[in-house]
């Protein structure tokens, strides 16, 4: 039974509807609370069942393979420009400007289209929990568009890998993510090569020399292996050692992106390819288990074992409970979800239903402070409004410090209030809410919007403040900045 809250004439069923729409969903759209009220848990459970067609806004986006082709073409233009500079045809400053402008002109519009599609779907979907889970798993397997090669690929990872796999096993999602060009390029695995591989042996014989006379390194890059263990599966305290990371990185050599030049010209440009030429051969021991598989199959076998490891179950369960229950995840809830994860072989719909069934998730509304992503999305849904231009969709997230698809590190965006509730952050929320009020306030009825978004959960104090506002614009600003709207 959900706890009562400070509001008049509210029943437990209505409280559950508010929690379902705001904590599990992305914020209530007009009429959503009334639709949800009769069976909040059933409404949520239906959303995690089965597969769905790709949303129209997403289906129109440029596929990742084509994005990589465009990026490669921009890189070719960069090489041509450098040749012109070397020959004295262009100054270094002109060269730098041409390179930056060329890459941005190609990739930034693709990025903005992905952002616009993401929030158009989020603002209009009738299955907001499903969309929240897409966002959750995208953040779990974070890549950042801060890296040039990933500018046009971060949204593609979400749409091509996360979206279709949230109805599958965790192992399926894990394998799909690690094969995607966005993850490989973000963590530089295409640059990793075994010292005993064919290329490594060739480089050793030739003693590859660069222009400065220093020997070029052909060796292991541990980025992908480390982040898979630390952030995607076991967790930082998951029981692995540095030796496990190094050996796993050796197993992952050859996991790359198609295209390239010379000896590395292999596979379809922009798609996953396994390059046996750079794979470190031989049996490998990771977490005490020997892997004798050859080629791509070796790292795949490791990934499948990591996916079902007990430490992975606990790590994933902790993140889910933190997201849906509390910044400080209750140990009993974490163990309950971890057990479901283990018993179901990581079947994500089963795990997601178990999260819905957690009693701790229904004890009280307004526990989790919204991230900028959640705050703006819930405002879009409440107002039934999304800006038309892609750059306008991205603008509020930039202002509030959570630019889409740019978490800044492979750890993803923080999911606790201490990262988002500082004084400067709140001032920026006020600034944006005021601008929204001025733009839309004349067409809005703030109290009606409050009832549609938060029902009777609105406190008497907040309701009175909105009612006494000097204008509709001010009333809308007060609603968006109310304690009830700022939390979920």
Low-confidence region ranges: 1-10, 209-216
Quote the distance from N terminus to C terminus: 18 Å
Helix-and-strand structural type: mainly alpha
Tell me roughly what share of residues is in helical segments: 55-70%
How much of the sequence lies in strands comes to: under 5%
Assembly status: single chain
Tally of DSSP β-strands:
4
The SSE string, one letter per element, is: HHHHHHHHHHHHHEEEEHHHHHHHHHHH
Q: What is the overall shape?
A: globular
Number of domains: 4
Largest sheet: 2 strands, antiparallel
Summarize the structure.
The chain is built from 24 helices and four strands. By secondary structure, the protein is mostly helical.
Question: What does it look like?
Answer:
Residues 1-10 and 209-216 have low confidence and may be disordered. Helices cover 57% and strands 2% of the residues. Helix 5 runs antiparallel to helix 6 and helix 12 packs across helix 13 (242-252). The two termini are 18 Å apart. The strands form 2 sheets. Strands 1-2 form a two-stranded antiparallel ribbon. The protein has a two-stranded antiparallel ribbon with strand order 3-4. The protein has 24 helices and 4 strands. Strand 3 and strand 4 (289-291) form a beta hairpin. It has 4 domains: 12-48 and 367-486, no CATH class; 56-186, no CATH class; 189-307, no CATH class; 313-362, no CATH class. By secondary structure, the chain is an all-alpha fold.
């Amino acid at each position: 039974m959900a706890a009562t809250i400070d509001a008049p004439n509210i029943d437990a069923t209505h409280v559950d509807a508010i929690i379902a729409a705001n904590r599990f969903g992305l914020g209530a759209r007009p009429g959503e609370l009334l639709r949800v009220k009769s069976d909040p848990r059933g409404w949520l459970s239906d959303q995690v069942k089965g597969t769905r067609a790709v949303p129209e806004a997403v289906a129109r986006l440029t596929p990742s393979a084509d994005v990589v082709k465009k990026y490669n073409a921009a890189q070719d233009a960069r090489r041509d420009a450098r040749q012109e500079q070397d020959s004295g045809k262009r100054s270094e400053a002109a060269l730098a400007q041409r390179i930056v402008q060329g890459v941005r002109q190609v990739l930034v519009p693709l990025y903005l289209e992905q952002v616009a599609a993401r929030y158009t779907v989020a603002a209009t979907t009738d299955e907001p929990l499903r969309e929240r889970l897409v966002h959750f798993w995208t953040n779990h397997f974070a890549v950042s568009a801060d890296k040039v090669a990933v500018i046009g690929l971060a949204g593609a990872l979400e749409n091509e890998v996360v979206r279709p796999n949230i109805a599958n096993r965790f192992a399926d999602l894990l394998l799909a993510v690690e094969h995607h060009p966005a993850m490989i390029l973000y963590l530089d695995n295409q640059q990793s090569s075994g010292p005993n591989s064919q290329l490594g042996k060739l480089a050793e014989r030739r003693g590859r020399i660069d222009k400065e006379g220093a020997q070029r390194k052909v060796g292991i890059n541990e980025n992908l292996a480390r982040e898979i263990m630390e952030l995607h599966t076991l967790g930082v305290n998951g029981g692995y050692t540095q030796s496990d990371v190094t050996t796993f990185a050796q197993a992952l050599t050859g996991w790359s992106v198609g295209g390239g030049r010379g000896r590395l010209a292999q596979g379809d440009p922009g798609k996953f390819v396994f390059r046996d030429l750079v794979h470190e051969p031989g049996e490998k021991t990771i977490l005490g288990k020997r892997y004798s598989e050859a080629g791509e199959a070796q790292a795949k076998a490791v990934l499948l074992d990591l996916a079902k490891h007990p430490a992975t179950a606990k790590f994933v369960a902790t993140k889910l409970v933190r997201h849906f229950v509390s910044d400080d995840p209750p140990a009993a809830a974490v163990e309950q979800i971890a057990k479901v994860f283990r018993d179901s072989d990581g079947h994500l719909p089963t795990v997601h239903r178990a999260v819905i069934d957690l009693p701790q998730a229904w004890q009280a509304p307004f526990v989790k402070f919204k991230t900028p992503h959640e705050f703006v999305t819930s405002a879009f849904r409440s107002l039934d409004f999304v800006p038309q231009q892609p750059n306008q969709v991205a603008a509020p997230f930039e202002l509030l410090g959570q630019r889409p698809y740019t978490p800044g590190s492979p750890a993803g965006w923080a999911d606790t209030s201490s990262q988002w509730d500082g004084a400067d952050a709140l001032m920026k929320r006020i600034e944006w809410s005021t601008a929204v009020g001025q733009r839309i306030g004349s067409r809005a009825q703030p109290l009606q919007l409050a009832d549609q978004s938060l029902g009777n959960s609105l406190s008497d104090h907040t309701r009175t403040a909105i009612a006494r506002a000097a204008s509709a614009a001010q009333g809308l600003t007060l609603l968006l900045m109310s304690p009830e709207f700022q939390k979920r």
